[in-house]
Structures are given as structure tokens and as C-alpha cells.
Amino acid sequence: MMELVGEEIHWPCLILASHSVEMAEDGTYRTEVMREALDANGFTYDEYNRLDPGYCSYTYGAGIGRASSGGGYQGPGATVQQLAAHRGVIVSGGSNRYTIGEHDMNVLDGWLAASDSLNPRFLWINGDEAVRSLSSWGSTFLGSRLCASYVHYVYFLHSGDETYCLPMDGWSGGRIECTGLGGPDDEQFVLAGNRCSRQFDVTGASGIPGCSGAIELAYNETLHGETYAAAVSGVVEESGGPWYRSLIEGYDFTSIRSDASLASPECGPDTASAQARAAWAQCVLLGFGHLSPGAYCDSAGWIGVDDPSDGKRSPPAYVTQLQQSFPNPMNPTATIQYSIGTPGKVMLRIFDVSGRVTRTLVDESMSVGEYQSTWDGKNDRGKQVGSGVYFYQLEAPNFRSAKKIVILQ
Question: pLDDT band at residue 18, thresholds of 50, 70 and 90?
């Protein structure tokens, strides 16, 4: 979901990745339940999800990652470069243990590693056995990136607690304050389906130096008097290095309900349960993740060069700029002129109004200077595109700008 504001393309700061083909208990798709909570808080977001039931959600995780050619990985996905301009990612995995796949993890790991104090990021992962899915091949990511550890894959087996409408208690040492659901030590909400048929993870803080993990929620703490952690937050703030926050929950977001006093399977009225999910999403995203509802992002920055003699910036001989194409409307071709002020990787691409890449005109390292490219109205497969509005975008070191181009046939 992209829009042109002035000369810049803007897009939602938040991405939702989910198992869209999995159904919740009430017959709706699980991703719709997550959408309702985001919409109730006014968040704008893009989605990566599995719209085609032919995709195997039990093998490939939530679909953030994209495998290399020949890797057998199908479906929607993203590269680190595509995620780089987004500030927040939600991976909502549902009720199976494949919340996040190895390809997903590799992309998200690179995305978090590339953050800094000027470009902070937030990652929220939730799903039954989400922690377990990372405990073997993703153990380093779980412990060092998300600051969490794996304890057990089924809470009721580990604890002996068979409470179906399972109370979730806030933890006094946690960072997420959710006054709409009670105080830090109060019950926040309940989970429907403990013992039958859900498998909720037990987790904990990893204690790895440089990765500050904290327990946020515990399963039914008032019954046991001991800690069976359900959710762990992470804060990594390194000077000149990664700068991000994270939350991993070992249960499916759609299992959140409002009232433990009601019998199974409801565990709370539909309206009240939806309000509980919306309140928790607000506390996580806005209060802890510092993501603003309705926020759009772009990656434009100040352009200049470094003078090694005194460490100060001086005006470059060329300034990276993108000119309006001509003629516009185009028929049958258009010329795009631009200049590069800092040498490095340059990309010039054409997008349709949905944000999909139509044609890549330039993808190479370029030196300082003035350039021009011609678009013949064809896509990357050599087929003529239809009439309508398109965008062309120039990406260069510390620079991104886009303009509108129209085809009339």
C-alpha cells in the first residue's frame, strides 16, 4: 500500500505476516482477528500472507522470508532490502508450531541487525509453539536476538494445569504496561484452549549479555505461585550498532479472551474478547514498540560527502537528484534523467499503483555523475503494460525519491 506524497513514495511503517489460510475457532481466518485488533487502534499496515491454500503453511512459516532460487520455497516473501524501510513487523503464526520458518528467521535477523538509533525497529512474534520452532535451528536468533529461551512446548504438560480458560498474569519486572487490562501484576486476559487443543510454549529470558530480556506475562501465576513464563520482551540498544525491541509470545494471538469465569469454549463474550485483543495490541505496539497508529515511512535522507581532512561535510560536486520524466504522459517511451552525488549501488525501478515492481531499469554500482534511462513501457518479461499511473523510484546511497509517470495508449 504505497502513496505518493510530493516527490516521495510513502508506505505503512508496519507489516503483518500471518498464516491467512488457517481458520480460528469461530470460522474466520486467523489473520482477520489480528487485522481487527490493528484496525481498532487505527494502525496502517501492509501484509505478507498466504492467500493460496496450495502453499504449505506447516513447512514454510509465515512467509516473510524468500528462499534462493532452487530452494523449493514458494509464496509471498520479502528480502532484507525490502524490509529495511519498515519500522515494525508482526509475525502471527496461529495454532501450529510453524510460526516462523528458517527463511523467515534469516531475513528478520538481517533486518534487526541493520537497525540503529536513527532507524529503530520492533519485531512481535506470536503463535502456539513459536518459541519451540526457534529452539533448534534458530536457537541463536532466539537467545541473542530476541533475548528469550525455550523451556517446554506444552504448558499443561509441564505444569499439570488443565485450566481451559487460562488466566494470563502481568509480571512486575516487565516493560509492557497495559492499564486498560489491569496493572503490571494483575490478570491481563485469558487464553482459550489450554490442554485441549492448544499447545502453549513455556519460555524465559535468555540472560545473554547485551540482550536485555524480561518476562512480560506468566501462565496462571496466582494458582501456582511460581513462574511459567508465556512472553518475553527484548531490548537491544548498542551505540553505533543494532537498536531494536522485540516481543515473542508462545501462544496464538487469536486465543486471547476476556473472562476466565465463563465456561469453555467461549472464555468471554465475543465483543469483550475483541476489546481485550485490541487493548493488548495497543500496549504492545504503541506503548512498548513505539509505533504510531496511521504512521507512514520513507527513507529519504540528507545527501552529502565526507571531507577526510577535517571530518566535516562539504557540498558534493553532484547532488543525487531525480528529475521528472519526459514526455509525461508517455507514448511510447519516456526518458528519466537523474544525477548521483555519492558513488555506490543504484537502483531505478518502475512500480505499479499496488507497489509491485514492473520493470528494473538500473541495478548496478555507479560513480558520481549525470545519467538518463529510457523506459519503453514494457515490464521485466518484455510485455507491454496497460495504460494507467505508475511510479518510478531512484535508490542510491542515502537517497530514495519517486515520481509519477502516466501511460496513455
Answer: confident
Looking at residue 385, its amino acid is V
Q: Return the higher-pLDDT residue of 62 and 150.
A: 150
pLDDT of residue 181: 76
Query: How far apart, in whole angstroms, are the C-alpha atoms of residue 158 and residue 161?
Result: 8
- pLDDT category at 83 given cuts 50, 70, 90 is confident
The kind and range of the H/E element at 224 are helix 221-224
Cell of 264: 469453555
Grid cell locating 30: 486467523
Instruction: Tell me if residue 256 falls in helix, strand or coil.
Output: strand
Dist CA 172 CA 149 (whole Å)? 19
CB 391 within 8 A of CB 351: yes
Distance (Å, whole) CA 335 – CA 325:
5
Distance CA 23, CA 1 (A): 25
Strand pairing class (187-192; 229-237): unpaired
Under the banding of pLDDT at 50, 70 and 90, the label for residue 43 is very high
Mean pLDDT, residues 332-341: 90
Mean of pLDDT over the chain: 80
Tell me which amino acid residue 8 is.
E
Q: For residues 400, 346, 82 and 392, what is the CA-based torsion angle, rounded to 10 degrees? A: 60
**Type of residue found at 293:** P
Alpha-carbon gap, residue 343 to 360, rounded angstroms:
19
Give the CA distances from residue 303 to residues 119, 342, 370, in Å, rounded to whole numbers and listed in that order: 17, 8, 16
CB atoms inside a 10 Å sphere around CB 105: 23
Q: What integer pLDDT is reported at residue 309 of this predicted model?
A: 39
Sole residue written with cell 514454510: 60
Q: Is the pLDDT of residue 313 over 50?
A: no
Helices and strands in the chain: count of H runs, count of E runs: 9, 24
* Cα–Cα distance for residue pair 200/248, rounded to 1 Å: 12
Residue 24's nearest CA partner among 284, 270, 218, 278 is: 270
Domains, the chain, ranges and CATH? 3-297 (3.40.50), 305-407 (2.60.40.4070)
Helix (H) or strand (E) holding 348: strand 344-351
pTM: 0.70
- 3-state SS, residue 275: helix
* Residue 389 · residue 402 · CB < 8 Å: no
